[in-house]
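ok so i was messing around last nite and threw this chain in just to see what happens. nothing serious, just curious
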Amino acid sequence: MSRDRVSSEGYLRVLSALSWRQLSLLVGLSILTSILLMADDVLFHLLGSAHYAVFEPVYALVIWLLSLSFWLCRQRWLVLLVLALFATMQVMQFANLAFTGEPLGVSDLQNALLNPEDVSQALKASWRPYIWLVVVVGLPYGALAFLHGVLSPRINTPYFGLAWLLILLIIAAKPIRASYRDLEDFLPGPTRSALHNSMNVFSFFAVKGLQEGASPHATSMHAMVPYTMTPQVASPSARHIWLVVADSLRPDRMSAYGAARNTTPHLQAWMGKLDGVPLQGIAAGVSTAVSLPALINVIREPGQEAWMRDKRHNLFRLANERGYETYWLSSQESKLLTYLGRPFIDHVVTKENRVLGFMQRRDALLADIIEKQMPTDKSFVVFNMRAVHFPYEENYQHDAAFAPPWSTTGQLDHETRMRNTYDNALLHWDGVMNRILQAFAKLEGEKYLIITADHGQLLGEGGRWGHNRLQPEVVEVPLMVFSADADKPHDLIQQSWISHYELGLWIAQRLGVQIDNPNADDTLHFNHGDQLLGDRFVLPIREWPDRIEYHAPVLLSTLRPRQTADR
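result:
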């Protein structure tokens, strides 16, 4: 019998042996403790600047289990030690959040480790305006320390010896995960609880960040010249710009791009109803956490973390400043928002704040939301869809009304089954897109809807599957533009290949801002690789009139700003 099962059965035996009075006391204390552990988010929002944390049911359940274990273990020293650890992390988390407006990240901890004198001087010079953070952290954690340190011995709660084990398992889960996962899985999410972010960031830093911080390496290109931004008109003519970033799309599997299977019939029909054109795209990265920040922040050159942080040419920022109502509608995790400009987004939906809805509806929930919350005046909407992400069948199995046309029986060989499930998921996603396009078509005025993918997907080529690989099948993505009451996008159509960076420039123009990049070479593109931060391999891609040419991946630290490939 597993240890988890023993632990859970032990919990049930303890709880079943309690009187109603004891059970009510235990439940009441655990709920009170849970509320106090999450109260600092509310206090920060009330006393300080904007904080976008939302209630996450799964996270709240974990906090309640931890709180329950605090009372059942009856080991005050352990509980107080954990609370002291949490309070220390939260002081640093909220200090960074108050000062910078961004959640604390691993790079912030590394910078503090490398430059302790700078941190000390900054604290001495600017602590007074942030003294209210003492209340934000001190009030709830002071109450928790009082409950467990002073009242706990006087309260008749039951004892369960293995409760300490559950406490350790909850605390150790993140560091254990950090030992085998990359930094992208530990990025802080602007809509997550501050404690949730702290546990992610400090766990990764403790396991891997200390070593990286002690011996830093070059992570950005040298001597980059800033882009210039020039407002074109007082009020842009485009009233609605919707951008759909669907996960793992491959154009060669889409019938809209000539695939033999009829996988995108609705998109093909809408190409006739609206002025739709299918184009060839080049992804900014081979993972979602890389391509989204590069696309939304309109960054061509890899390694420009500073530009992601200050969001100088962030599309949400440009849209917000030009009077557009902004939306981020995502069926994926909130951590993807880290560098996307949360302060400039009016409406945010993520997997965490609609857990039950996404479990039942998946991407279709995004269509439900936009149908019920249709923009009225000017809108800039970004849909971040799960689409055909692996495991492919999970994207459509929940939908009883969908009959997958391609067989997925176990009698098929692995490659055939995988490709069939991929195409089934693609067809299902096409149905969701039909609803979004129906909503889009009802909008008035000049409008554009762009469909692309964060990256492509390997489907058995050379024995490879998935993404996170600098391979053509992952780099090449669809790019479809639908428009109405507007001229066709001739500036895009005349190009053979369009990078995510070039798409960002085009969207910025529709928002009324001209972005000029003095570093750019129109025939040289970059895929930023599979990691957002640190030294990594990036892929230079040379564009010719009739093709694109892939060059050998190079380490970011060896890349030069005006690197050229042999012509």
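not much to say yet. The CA atoms of residues 316 and 341 lie 6 Å apart.
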